[in-house]
Amino acid sequence: MARKRKAKRGASRGGRRSTAKAGGKPRDKGESSEGKKGERPRGGWGETIKTLAIALVIFLVVRFFLIQTFIIDSGSMERTLLVGDLLVVNRAAMGSKIPLTDTRIPGYSEPRRGDVLVFDPPHDDTLILVKRLVGMPGDTLEMRRKVLYLNGEPQDEPYVVWSRPRDNADPGMMWQQRILLGGPRNDYFPTRDNWGPLVIPPERYFMLGDNRDSSLDARVWGLIERWRFEGRVMAIYFSYNRDSMRPFPWIREVRWGRIANVVR
C-alpha cells in the first residue's frame, strides 16, 4: 500500500511538471489575456495613418487617371443629358494628364465619331464641356436647313433636339473661312443652321451639342485638338431636377428612371 501511494505522488508531481513545460511561465497576477498590464496595443496611430495614406493614393489614382464625375448644368445636350444629370466619365479611355506636369498618359482607345466626350474647350481654359463628336480628321461637314451632312450624306441623328424655328447668324462663325472647302469666299456668311462645307484638318475634331439651337459649340469657337479630351461619358449615376423650386430637390425631385442609364 505504501508503494502505491508513493507511485501516485510521483505521477502527480510528474503531471505538474509537464503542465509547466507546455504552458510556459505562469502568468503574473497583473497580466491579462491580451498582454501585460499597461502594454499598448500594436499598430495604433501608425497603422491608422498608413491605412489613410493608402486610401488617399487609391482615390487620387482613380480620380485623375481612371474615373471622373461630371454634373450637367446647361441644356446644350438635351435630350441625351439633362440639367442635374451626374455622369461617370472614363478617363482611361482617352488618356489623362499627370497633375502639375505636361506629361500625358496615353489612353487605350481613340475618339470615335458619335462619342459623347468631356473636354477642355479652346476658347476658355476655365471651362470643362461635354458635347458629341461629329467631325473627324479628313471629314467634310456641312449643315443645310438644320440637317447635318457628312461627306455629302445626310445624317440620321435621333438624339438631336431643335427648339428655335428662326435661324440666326453669329460673327464668331467666320473662323470657318479657314477650312472652307475650296478656300475662303467673300460671299460666305454662315448661320447656325446653314454652314459649310468644311474640311476637318488632320488632328482636329468638330464637336456639337445635341440641342442644336441652344448649344455654343464648334460652329462658333472652332476645332479642338486630341489632347483636349478628358474622357468618354459612360453612364448617369444619379439625376434630379436641378431647376426645381422645391426645397431639397436632390431628395424630392430624383429622376429614378435615368439612374444607371448608359449614355449613347
Kindly list the characteristics that best describe this protein.
seven-stranded antiparallel sheet; globular; 5 helices; Umud Fragment, subunit A; 21% helix; disordered N terminus; single chain; four-stranded antiparallel sheet; 264 residues; 25% strand; alpha+beta
What does this structure look like?
- The protein is an alpha+beta fold.
- The protein has a single domain, classed as Umud Fragment, subunit A, CATH 2.10.109.10.
- About 20% of the residues lie in helices and about 25% in strands.
- It has five helices and 15 strands.
- It has helices at about 1-25, 45-65, 90-95, 220, 250; strands spanning about 30, 35, 65-70, 85-90, 95, 105, 115-120, 130-135, 140-145, 145-150, 155, 195-200, 205-210, 225, 230-240.
- It has a seven-stranded antiparallel sheet. A four-stranded antiparallel sheet has the order 11-10-9-12, with no helix packed on it. It has a two-stranded antiparallel ribbon with strand order 1-2.
- β9 and β10 (about 145-150) form a beta hairpin.
- The longest helix has 22 residues, at about 1-25.
- The protein starts with a helix and ends in a 12-residue tail after the last helix.
- Mean pLDDT is about 80; it is low at about 1-25 and about 30-35.
Topology, element by element:
Layout: H1 2-23, E1 31-32, E2 35-36, H2 45-66, E3 67-71, E4 85-90, H3 91-94, E5 95-97, E6 104-106, E7 116-119, E8 129-135, E9 140-144, E10 147-150, E11 153-154, E12 195-199, E13 204-208, H4 218-221, E14 224-225, E15 229-239, H5 249-252
Antiparallel strand pairs: 1-2, 3-4, 4-15, 5-6, 7-8, 7-15, 8-13, 9-10, 9-12, 10-11, 13-14
